[in-house]
């Protein structure tokens, strides 16, 4: 079957023909690819075309597709049962590994997605502080919970929507929003609402609406203001966690949040999320405290096995190699005239505009140029995320062969710019 015929059927089943809006090709044009198998840094669509993958399932596949050790761990877990709805030893094993890598996570709760992790962390913060208001930053995306779809980014920015229909004004009114890269606005919001804020949540490495690398002074001041006003600081490390280093951005920047949310990599390709942090804050979560949060499939043994097999293989050498690759591939990307490629570890953002720290300052012409780039790279069998606001991901499986393929594709595409 062709991608086009599959997509036409998908349109009869799903809104927009997809199960998540960022998978649609409406921003870049064309028909979404339907993939049937993958290995290492490559995957193959239903028409048999092999693509070099720079999306890596939006980040979790830090070891590459179908890593043999992860597959073996999953298969062993599956033989013992797909799900129990009860505790299992694999939850404990993954929790121990996470604590080894991130010592400030004193207690944690596994969930099934990053959205669920963030939603639960905010509820815990409200329960701990007895406050209702929260602070987020415009250009940071934290999932599709109602309180966070307020000038949110990622897929919403792709379609030019500043917020989402279906979110009551009464919910949105409890969320204060300030721009990134604006210390004055940050000071002002704490001056006005500091005693009402249960928490402030931020992507310490904003990577859901472009790679909007911030000055460290912003994060340091946010930490100080939260402590001064009794608000909890939540780092959303669903993307940056375990990717930019073993302790994520918190370790990289030397800033300890009160709570942190993870996803992506801790599932090794399976649906997993986590929120955790200070033991006293997590003590409000049921059954120890009054904040209710539950999940029938939380701590799923197959997902736990995949996550543990992944984290066990993230050695200092792997991180050093990924950091080197990030710089190497970013430099190769910049062979294309006018393209700039900010990078953090193995995260890349190809953008036809320099020095962007806020998503609202991305020029429409830069996105138009990305759309052209996406089409041309697809023709060279290189798969980029279908949005100029999304970052690219490298993995341990992106080696010399893949780099040579990428450089050849870049050189071919460069002639079109």
Relevant CATH superfamily of the largest domain:
Type I PLP-dependent aspartate aminotransferase-like (Major domain)
CATH domain fold name of the largest domain? Aspartate Aminotransferase, domain 2
Going across the biggest sheet, name each strand in turn: 4-10-9-8-7-5-6
In round numbers, the mean pLDDT is 94
Tell me the major beta sheet.
Answer: 7 strands, mixed
Helix count equals: 14
Q: Which stretches of 5+ consecutive residues score pLDDT under 50?
A: 152-162
CATH architectural type of the largest domain: 3-Layer(aba) Sandwich
Query: Could you tell me the radius of gyration in angstroms?
Result: 21 Å
Percent of residues in β-strands: 5-15%
Specify the overall morphology.
Answer: globular
Helix/strand layout:
Layout (H helix, E strand, L loop, with lengths): L2 H11 L21 E5 L2 E4 L4 E4 L14 H13 L8 H13 L5 E5 L2 H16 L3 E6 L16 H4 L10 H4 L2 E5 L3 H11 L3 E6 L13 H14 L2 E5 L11 H6 L5 E4 L10 E5 L1 H4 L18 H11 L4 H18 L9 E2 L2 E2 L15 H16 L2 E2 L8 E2 L6 H15 L3
Parallel strand pairs: 3-13, 5-6, 5-7, 7-8, 8-9
Antiparallel strand pairs: 1-2, 2-3, 4-10, 9-10, 11-12, 12-14
Characterization of the model:
The protein is of the alpha/beta class and 417 residues long. The chain folds into 2 domains: 3-66 and 315-414, Aspartate Aminotransferase, domain 1 (Alpha-Beta Complex), CATH 3.90.1150; 68-311, 3-Layer(aba) Sandwich (Aspartate Aminotransferase, domain 2), CATH 3.40.640. The protein has 14 helices and 14 strands. A 7-stranded mixed sheet has the order 4-10-9-8-7-5-6, with helices on both faces. A 4-stranded mixed sheet has the order 1-2-3-13. Helix 2 (68-80) packs antiparallel against helix 11, helix 3 (89-101) packs parallel to helix 11 and helix 7 packs parallel to helix 8. It starts with a helix and ends with a helix. The model is unreliable at 152-162 (pLDDT under 50).
